[in-house]
Specification:
about 400 residues; single chain; alpha+beta; 16 helices; 4-stranded antiparallel sheet; 6-stranded antiparallel sheet; about 35% helix
Length: about 400
């Protein structure tokens, strides 16, 4: 029997509360020649998205179905000429496709502005475009403004196809030891509100003080899971963007403008529903983004939960310390843990914690408010977030290149 709201996160086995068994990867790689009836433009696009540089899946049925739904044939004919790392103008794409620029420019604009399926830059002298990775990338941008109440049939089907692609487990190829994590989780406010070792970078209020503009959108993961009939009932309008990134999203209409106080209220409500807040692992003042995640829908957390891939996120500043002499083995901490890091046998009165899966969110400490058998303690060798995107990229680039090369050789 699964716990309410967390079908992929935790299960009850007789008297034991703990994580579900690890799922096996079920991706079935195919050759592009296995799809002779699929139009050539779609096969070309699928081959581009399969690139390890874009953290793509291998050629498979799920990828081919997604590409054919995401683009019309005319759009696919244009997209196949876009760069992975470099920007290209409508004129460059038109030359590659051997069509007039006046035909290509509207297609690119539709894909960038209406669908948000490709990246664009309006810097002079002309608009430029390039591909986004599928996940993360296209998935978030296309679905961030789509609520479960207003989602169109096209978006609903897209969400289902993304869920099917995720469930192949292909993302495990890119979660390798030694990678530079781009995301870190903040401890919930109640868990460290009076802790003398808490840093400004641990506190959401201090992080928000760096920005003047805030926008909020829908949680793409819970929207996607609901479309697949697997979601939970946690709040969905809590994906937050700040600074220059928010300005662009608000201007384009895919983010709702909110105030700093609104963001705090949204995040505190999310925490009250057992959601945890992540930030990019960079202290940039140009732009920042933050989601409120659940262990049952969030694709980032599910990679750890379902495929047992620890070390996906930046090591936390705080970790729980369990006073087992106070613990009654009631199992409340195991139920609340979004990572399935705690296992409790309520009959045998045993308690186990897997540090490698812990993100330091503190929900276990908040859940143990009666016995107070859990306290959040700072990690002595904690590393602060990167100071800039440049410093992050300089540190991350070699590992990303090694991973892409390894995945390419394996395929």
């Amino acid at each position: 029997m699964s716990q309410q709201g967390g079908p992929q996160r935790i299960e009850v086995r007789k008297t034991i509360l703990g994580p579900r068994p690890v799922r096996a990867r079920n991706v079935r790689p195919r050759a592009i020649g296995d799809y002779p009836r699929v139009p050539q433009v779609y096969r070309d696009v699928a081959e581009v998205y399969a690139s390890p540089v874009l953290m793509g899946p291998p050629i498979c049925d799920e990828l081919m179905a997604l590409v054919q739904h995401l683009f019309t044939e005319d759009e696919a004919a244009v997209v196949r000429h876009l760069g992975i790392l470099s920007w290209r103008t409508a004129r460059q794409v038109a030359r590659a496709e051997r069509r007039g620029e006046e035909e290509i420019e509207p297609v690119l604009q539709r894909l960038a502005v209406e669908k948000r399926a490709i990246a664009s830059s309006s810097s002079r002298p002309a608009w430029r475009y390039k591909l986004l990775p599928l996940l993360p990338g296209v998935f978030e941008m296309v679905l961030i403004s789509e609520s479960a109440e207003t989602i169109s049939p096209w978006h609903h089907r897209l969400a289902q196809l993304f869920e099917a692609l995720y469930e192949t487990g292909y993302l495990a190829d890119y979660t390798r030891p030694g990678a530079t994590p781009a995301v870190r989780y903040l401890p919930v406010g109640k868990a460290i509100e009076a802790h003398p070792m808490a840093l400004p970078s641990d506190r959401l209020e201090a992080l928000l003080d760096r920005f003047d503009t805030f926008g909020v959108g829908q949680c793409q993961c819970r929207t996607s899971a609901l479309a697949a009939g697997k979601g939970c009932d946690a709040p969905r309008q809590n994906c937050t963007v700040m600074g220059q990134w928010a300005e662009r999203g608000i201007d384009a209409g895919w983010l709702k403008p909110v105030s700093r106080q609104n963001v705090l209220e949204i995040k505190r409500e999310a925490e009250s529903h057992g959601l945890v807040t992540w930030m990019m692992n960079v202290d940039s003042t140009d732009g920042q983004c933050s989601c409120s995640c659940c262990g049952c829908c969030c694709k980032a957390l599910r990679v750890v939960n379902e495929f047992n891939l620890p070390n996906t996120f930046a090591p936390p500043h705080f970790l729980p310390r369990f006073a087992l002499d106070k613990c009654t083995r009631c199992g409340r901490c195991a139920v609340k843990c979004p990572m399935g890091a705690i296992t409790v046998d309520v009959a045998a009165k045993t308690h186990a914690w897997r540090a490698e899966r812990c993100i330091g969110c503190g929900l276990c400490a908040v859940a143990c408010d009666r016995q107070q058998a859990v306290a959040m303690e700072p990690v002595p060798d904690y590393k602060l977030p990167y100071r800039s995107w440049m410093s992050f990229l300089l540190r991350a680039a070699p590992g990303m290149a090694r991973t892409a090369w390894t995945v390419w050789r394996q395929r």
